[in-house]
Amino acid sequence: MASTEYISLDWRNAPTAEVIIDRLLTIFNELDAFSQVSMRLSNSTTAAIVHSASINGIKAFRRSGRQTTRKANTPKLATYFSDLWEVTKTLQAMQVDEQALKGRFIAYKDVKPERNMSLAYVRRLIIDLALTITVHPLALGIKGEVSGEVYIPKGVHINIRLVTNTFEYNKRDATVPGNTKKWCKDVKLSVGTHTILEPVLDLKVIITSTSRVDAVVVVEHRNLASVMTENRFAIEHIIIVMTSGCPDSATKEHLHQLSNNERIKNVPFLYYSDHDNHGIDIFKTLKYGSKKAAWASDISICPQLVWVGPTLNEYLDSPKEFRQQWIEAHKEKHQSETDAQTARAADKWQKNAEASMKKKLVALNRKDQEMIRAFRSGGWLEDESRIQNEIAQMEEKPSKFRMANLADFDVRYLRQYIETTLLQYCTARTKVPGQKAAALSIRQQAFADAASQSQLSNLPSAQDMSQALATQQELPEAETVNPAAVFEEVEEALALGLF
User: Fold this and answer.
1) DSSP secondary structure string for all residues of 153-183
2) What is the DSSP letter of 233?
């Protein structure tokens, strides 16, 4: 495989409209002359065509330049080439007219051949043509549906140069001043949630002197982002990318550009999802690319992305972790109860909650098992030991669950989980509003772990910690919260016999 030549399609490097038309017509000239033609097909995803390889030392799915000979010698193939020609005529007309739609792209669904074709079929034909003539679909004037969104925190701006007409862009003259007006528009995104734009020529992250970016968080669902950005739970200094399910090309390119931006490329890029194969597959697509779009891996992967969770153990332990908050809420409603009565009530609640959590776990189905086999054959899973462990548990027993299940007791628990894991991956974050509970929960866990290992008493009580959480106690103004340092402090104190 070392000598394999790969296709890497980037719409920024596409030829002019005249060259594109010539390449499109060459396909059918060859077909007329020889009743066959060499093509690259979008549905060729076998190991011989698409496999895991390196992009500058980074593992990703790559598409080889290998072609397949197609003959128009059966009714099915004759229909295929007839349909292909109908789509080609539409693309050709767009190129000749230099996108008569006045600079707007058209979607796959707007390519309307004379005969009735499904959207998926039209998309497949267009990508077959694009791969065969080695031109990115965007350079043909076609773009897919965009569903991803990005949340930008206060004090951060993302300046985008948006290409409005690839035909004008591909024939641009960079030496002519003001030439950009024909093909681009500059857009500034500030605090709030925005639909991800496409196609973006370049992207710049501007961070004010009073702000910073601690992490880029990728989530599968909008509702999770809503929890993270809600006013009373606002997480500052975090850029959030929402894929809204399977990520589209615009979302992948946007995340790729963020991961290469000099201002933020060294911060953690973290992924939260449901605990199932679909969530894992989205992670794989974002970090390593996909087989169906392996020809675009160079411009659409985020190699530093880390799968955070939640894990099965974190899910099953959630009632125990939330027990103290439940006790505090229970005491407010039953002030006359003794501590013993409250403890018994808490035991009963925890037992029922744990049973309820287990009932919500779902077993793998046949499609899940097929996806797992594809994960293992893809070559990327060997680099993701934590995901391997979770998959092993899914195969052994019912283990699938939705991340939203962590909010079944209280949305605050989901919030606390997110804050805790953010602090674990962000090695040094100064105190900001909305962060105090997470810092305390890290300390609480550190002390709890130390206690369980040493069987020592005289530790800060769970009640004290819960009270700090409930009152939203602030950390000192300039304190830096470093989880590693917290654990080192605990270990040092234990060694010195301070507890």
Assistant:
1) -TTEEEEEEEES-HHHHHT--TTSTTGGGGT
2) G
**Mean pLDDT on 106-131:** 79
Contact in structure between 273 and 242 (CB atoms under 8 Å): no
pLDDT tens, 329-365?
899 999 999 999 999 999 999 999 999 999 999 999 9
Distance CA 464, CA 444 (A): 10
Structure tokens at 4: 């394999």
Are the CB atoms for 107 and 144 separated by under 8 Å? Answer: yes
DSSP assignments along 194-231, one per residue = EEPPS-EEEEEEEE-TT----EEEEES-HHHHHHHHSG
pLDDT-derived band at 234, boundaries 50, 70, 90:
low
pLDDT in tens, 418-429: 888 888 888 644
Phi then psi dihedrals of residue 66, to 5 deg: -60, 140
Q: pTM of whole model > 0.90?
A: no
DSSP 67-122: -EEEE--SHHHHHHHHHHHHHHHHHHHHHHTT-TTTT--EEGGG---SS---HHHH
AA letter at 169 = Y
Q: Omega into 310 within 30° of 0, i.e. cis?
A: yes
DSSP 140: G
State the pLDDT at residue 454: 33
393-423-402 Cα angle (round to 5):
35
- Cβ atoms 271, 42 nearer than 8 A: no
